[in-house]
Fold these 3 entries.
Entry 1:
Amino acid sequence: MPQTNGHTTKGGASHNPPWLFGILSIPYGIFNGILVVLIPFLLRKHGVSPDRIANVIAISSIPNVWYFLWSPVVDTGLLRRTWVLIAAGVSGLCGSVAIAATSLSLAQLTILLLAGNVVAMLLSSACGAVLTMLNPDKRGRASGWYQAGNLGGGAVGAGAAIWLADKLPLPILAAAAGSMVFLPALAALLISEERFPRMGLVPLFRALGRDVWDVLRARATLIGLVFFLSPVGSSAVANLISSVGPDYHASDAQVAWVSGLAGGVLSALGCVLGGFVCDRVNRMTAYALAGLLSAIFSAWMALGSPTPLTYAGGYIGYALAAGVAYAAFTALELDILGKRRHAAGTAYSLLGASGNLPIAYMTWFDGIGYKYSGARGLMAVDSLANGIGGVVLLLFAAYSARAYLQTPGD
């Protein structure tokens, strides 16, 4: 019978259903949609130039890389579900104020959005900590649902907010956006999680340090970083797809549809599919195959005629492949971490942050490809990086790394 004397809640953390994580990740997806889609849209309507908008968003997005520095907060004191509720509430409030307070200067707006994103990243850390406690046979599906909620929630939420922006006064739009961030977080009340005996501050931080050190020095972590830092599955084309629409003679409406709602929903479907696959094949193999799939569709866009069909068809496939890659990333990360008693959120955030580096450098390399050969060059660079990298990782998964990952019993 499950313990209820302060060690575990009913059912235990390993019994959380995979679909629950699809709801828990929606708040961050929507907040991110507010940050990178709705706020730029509103600022442009108020006459702010794109270069100044870019500065606001770039500074506000800094926590996406460095959030592991404050993620230990979720490993101390409160239950992780409490942190989910706090983070969703505070970030939703920051987003609402940013939308409604038209009197704010750009500097004040940037600080507000930066603070909101600092807190919003705790959603990832807290949910990641709960994910690590799942049984291995659920990790793939849970990873798929988790990434689907993030990508799908962000796409649908941002699309809905843009649609409402032309129909509602700013105060009502702000309240609606804040509610969309917070309300899905109420699903955190359904989380079953382990309760550990309270520790003094010094022993607690010693235990956190030991747990993090165990992760950093583990051979499995080094193997994981080979995957996480590679260009495979970085899906950098997603950051540039809206800008190359004219190269394929796509209309503004087609670009908005392909790069916005359709792309986000298809990525979410790819996540669910990828999670299903990751529970049935080696996660490293799934990761490499997702990269090869991305290479096929970016090659389609590189070699095909510059038409809207090439643009839409290629990116539809690319978005699905991106979803599979995101699910495989999270599932592989959970395999590497195993079940962590003390530093689950910190360790999850540390490895998760590493995955943002390939997105940045591949976006830069893709941009260089465009500089020299236009859209074809951009897509060719991305295809070669994913294709060659995918083959290398596939061989690596088959012959080198499998023995060092957690066994199914972990």
Note: The mean pLDDT is 85.
Entry 2:
Amino acid sequence: MSGAQASGAPGSHGPASGGFPHRFPGRLGDVLRVPAGGRVDLASYDPGAIPAGPRSKAAGLEAAAAAGERLAGLQERLYAAATAGDRRRLLLILQGMDTSGKGGTVKHVIGHFNPAGCRIKAFKAPTEEERDHHFLWRVARELPRSGDIGIFDRSHYEDVLIARVRGVVPRERIQRRYEEINAFERALAEDGVAIVKVFLHISRDEQRRRLLARIDNPDKHWKFDRGDIEERALWPDYQEAYERALEHCSSPEAPWYVVPADRKWYRNWAVSRLLLEHLEELDPQYPKGEFDIAASRRLLLEGG
């Protein structure tokens, strides 16, 4: 179950019976998507794999930069389309074990976008007020507006992950929450929200390396919590909780993608590529101007 079982060798893929497909059909989403209704065994997904796309860090950085330029243009078109009544928007949900790179991915992705059309929310432990409401209440309040791109660093899935591992709620209620999440996301999709859910998959060994790097660097001490070490004892339980969430909540309208995240450069490229594919599928268009172009030009040229 532990990610430490994966070799992390460059270009390595999971076994033929599971994990990443061996062929790249042209869309990264088709490679990384978790099939709806299928069983998930995270041990068959190599966190250090390069299942598709650039094969080196240099090529990955170049490809990510190129994708960034296209993302910026598509975001502007999405934002502009909303001014003419287009209700569509995009929501990126990032989940993963501690140190998997959720914050780093947000930092990378946000660099491509105009902040005016981007909404970021990092979900922490629920506040007292939030605990007094349904578990989806605090998430619904942070959804992107028409034309915006929303990014969730953690999300409503914490309520079927931590709640399951820690035994906060009974298992039968966890099962009901899967169903509530599916209904919630289905309603969002019907309302024009393109949902991109990414599980950043790292190995246990890589997590140890990243935690040690935080301990050894005084400038990173603010990011370290002793509880992160204690949580490592629950690694198998969290892997199982993620497997169940991916199994129950990957749907055609809101699919999960497993992104191998031991290589930070590959993680960043993969998430950028997934966003690009979804935005290209939306294909937002600039609205046509509702004014007399010739008259407006003439007014300016005549001293207006």
Note: The CA atoms of residues 1 and 239 lie 7 Å apart.
Entry 3:
Amino acid sequence: MSRVDNLRDRMAGAGQRFDDLRDELFAEPHQGHGSAKVWASVPEMTDETTRAKTGRGWDEWVALIDAGPGRNAGHAAIAAWVSDEHEVDGWWAQTVTVGYERITGLRLPGQMPDGTFSVSRSKSVSMDWSELRLLLDDPVARSAVLPRIDSTERSKPGVKAPKFSISDPETGTDLGVLQFRGDTTASGTRLVVTHEKLPHLHAAKAWKQFWAVWLEELAAEPQGPGE
């Protein structure tokens, strides 16, 4: 059995799961996070760390930004205000802004400034990154790795972390953008899959679970050509 046939057989479960999850993946999001609670979501940095690095805790930052640019100012304007008005360096100005957006419900975990969501999963696999790249660069082999999902390469040849636009083959629905990055390890590759441009949190959660199992199946792919 060829490498591609072997992969097609082993990754068939991913295609079946995609079919099973289609209704969930394409479901409309539940519009239910309009709560006025101050801490709609917990920021990544603790209150103590934020205070140590910026001179203020989260409640203070929320009050200051609400009284300053306000919740409708947008991410870039808030970050610039935090940096310029309060002399916070660029990285921490971004961190404060993202934390503020989470606390106030303007941005959910995994949500990007453009409103879409991004999820990532990683796992060690036995194949070398060079071999994985060859599979991803070959449309036939890629269809075995990503069964029942249409994919189109969107990055330049030879980039370290290639990206692919993916879509549903039956409806043509845009399913976002995949990026693969491989870090060489003693036993193979640490493969990171990042799925960007997801429309809502519901889809992000479904895809995150999908890629976790997908990586498990890819990691189970045996070494040795021609098996």
Note: Strands lie at 117-125, 150-153, 163-167, 174-185, 188-198.
